[in-house]
Design brief:
Tissue factor pathway inhibitor 2, 32% helix, Factor Xa Inhibitor, globular, 6 strands, 6 helices
């Protein structure tokens, strides 16, 4: 006759095997969900899984996935993952349950950034939920919808609400979706920096929509600063990621601080 401990051990073993089979089935369903979200044929994604970087060549589908709300799934594992937060417009960490969920789920911060960095950045006002307000008028207005990344009509009651409220579609589009050909860094003004070197660099000129040469002083400045004209066009015209540039050393940081102190002293003397 089996002892109490042997009986419980057998039950535990059966539970584990059933759990394993269940997780395999969930993983298959999860892969199918991801294929549907990214529009990829089943035969081409046998090894795809939630949490890996999405398949290349489906940028529109990637963007739609990045706009999905975070979904931990029904399981109870505690798996650290990353998702794109459309409200903060940045990649954030969350805890994934281990099954189901959706495609806005990445193994690392870098995977999330690589997949979602092309999502258009919109002003803070446009990230508010449409609010009809407490009054009872019936005014047709437009608000920007972060889920669809479009300006959509809603009914405004006539009082209160918030700033995501435009009288016509064009006003909403002009404010929330300005036509830009590249990342926001390309729309920073030319900035030579604070030091005294003279290094040839390139910046994107928003007025002429072209890359122009300027003299960089060697420290400070902003991200609209490219080593070559080709790099400038690749990022600001073609939408590629900016190539890495060596970070400033402690020496250059000290130079920046000294320059700022000198400038503040000069301004204080003038005033």
């Amino acid at each position: 006759m089996a002892t109490f401990w042997e009986t419980n051990a057998a039950r535990l073993s059966r539970r584990r095997s059933l759990s394993s089979l269940y997780s395999i089935r969930l993983d298959r369903d999860l892969q199918q969900d991801q294929r549907l979200i990214f529009g990829v044929p089943p035969s081409s994604t046998r090894s795809s899984r939630i949490g890996r970087a999405p398949v290349a060549g489906v940028s529109a589908e990637k963007q739609r996935a990045c706009l999905l709300p975070p979904d931990e799934g029904p399981c109870r594992a505690l798996v650290p993952r990353w998702y794109y937060d459309r409200h903060t417009q940045s990649c954030q960490e969350f805890t994934y349950g281990g099954c189901y969920g959706n495609a806005n789920n990445f193994l690392t911060f870098d995977d999330c950034e690589k997949s979602c960095w092309t999502i258009k950045k919109v002003p803070k006002l446009c990230r508010m939920e449409a609010d009809g307000g407490p009054c009872r008028s019936y005014l047709r207005r437009y608000a920007f919808n972060l889920s669809s990344m479009r300006c959509e009509e809603f009914i405004y009651g006539g009082c209160y609400g918030n700033g995501n409220n435009f009288r016509d579609l064009q006003s909403c589009v002009d404010h929330c979706l300005p036509e830009k050909t590249g990342p926001l860094l390309c729309y920073s003004p030319k900035d030579e920096g604070l030091c005294s070197s003279s290094v040839p660099r390139y910046y994107f000129d928003t007025k002429t929509k072209s890359c122009k040469e300027f003299r960089y002083t060697g420290c400070g400045g902003n991200a609209n600063n490219f080593v070559t004209e080709k790099d400038c066009y690749n990022v600001c015209r073609n939408g590629n990621q900016k190539p890495g540039i060596n970070k400033p050393t402690n020496l250059s940081r000290r130079k920046i601080v000294r320059k700022l102190k000198k400038k503040s002293q000069i301004y204080s003397l003038k005033s």
